[in-house]
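User: structure tokens for this one?
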Amino acid sequence: MQVDFYILHTINRQEKERFACQLTNKIWHQGYRIYIHTEPSILQRLDMMLWTFKEESFLAHDIYPDVSSSAPIRIGCTEQVCEEMDVLINLTEPPPPFFESYERIAEIVDDTPSAREAGRARYRFYKEKGYVLKTHDINR
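Assistant:
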């Protein structure tokens, strides 16, 4: 399994959600199905951003666990695995309990001391499990 860490160098709190939308767009255009695991406090804002972050298009998605959906992009904050997805974009501090159900994981770490420390803990966690780790510095 590969885990990509995207380190955002910005002080804008909304940049994490905007970057998650951009990353989702890129991954989806590569043919992958994506589950975005997030905090309940930003679920609705992220839902709206996926529809509006680009003027010329939107990312068709739904909020999990709508079991009748076949959307290629799903977002949620439950502790149950969203099956049939290829990539997990994790926006929470601990890795979700179902992280091993995905081919790839994207961890987005914003530029605050607490987020950096939590990101380092997740990095160590995945490293101890023997996963392939890559880091990407994103300057905004």
